[in-house]
Write a structure and sequence with these properties.
The protein is built from 7 helices and 5 strands. It is globular and about 45 Å long.
Length: 180
């Protein structure tokens, strides 16, 4: 966001946490170039509303949403599975589909989705997250073929990034993760 603002782009940040959005907006100091929108992105309607908050055609979409929580593998409760799929995969799909009807038609669109190196090797205790991030790779491949040639779709798959979301696993296995 910082680099895009520096280059003169209009930027819309979407997050579930209003305080985090306010803090990001203050840190970025984007002025009129920066808009924020609070959303859970819990449905196709919410994804569309989030993109509509841009107030203008959209040239690109970067999806960095995610949920990285312990998955107890409880056969009687797959709420962790459902949350992981919704926050890591389903809302990426919903945003990408909504983007196609809101993108600037005169330009080649860009979608960048965030997977994780977890899709290749798995994360103990976080099976649902690993599967959802593998799904992001499949989504990227499918969308890139479906949306070509008017939209380029790519994914990045970083290793662990030190954020509040990964603090528990970093405490458990930080040295091993950082050595990779």
């Amino acid at each position: 966001a910082r680099d895009l603002l520096r280059l003169g782009a209009q930027v819309l940040l979407v997050d579930v946490d209003a305080a985090r959005l306010d803090a990001a907006a203050q840190e970025l100091g984007g002025g009129a170039q920066l808009r924020v929108h609070r959303s859970m992105l819990a449905s196709p309607t919410e994804a569309a509303a989030a993109l509509d908050a841009a107030g203008q055609p959209i040239f690109g979409l970067i999806h960095m949403a995610g949920l990285f929580e312990h998955d107890p593998l409880d056969p009687n409760d797959h709420s962790a599975w459902d949350r992981a799929m919704a926050a890591n995969l389903t809302n990426a799909y919903d945003l990408a589909v909504a983007y196609q009807t809101r993108r600037e038609a005169a330009a080649v669109g860009r979608i960048v989705l965030c997977s994780s190196s977890a899709y290749r090797r798995g994360v103990p205790g976080r099976v649902a997250y690993s599967v959802a991030k593998a799904g992001v790779v499949g989504l990227t491949r499918g969308l890139s073929r479906q949306f070509a040639p008017h939209t380029l779709v790519n994914a990045v798959a970083p290793n662990a990034i030190r954020t509040p979301m990964t603090s528990a696993v970093m405490q458990e296995r930080g040295a091993a993760i950082l050595s990779m």
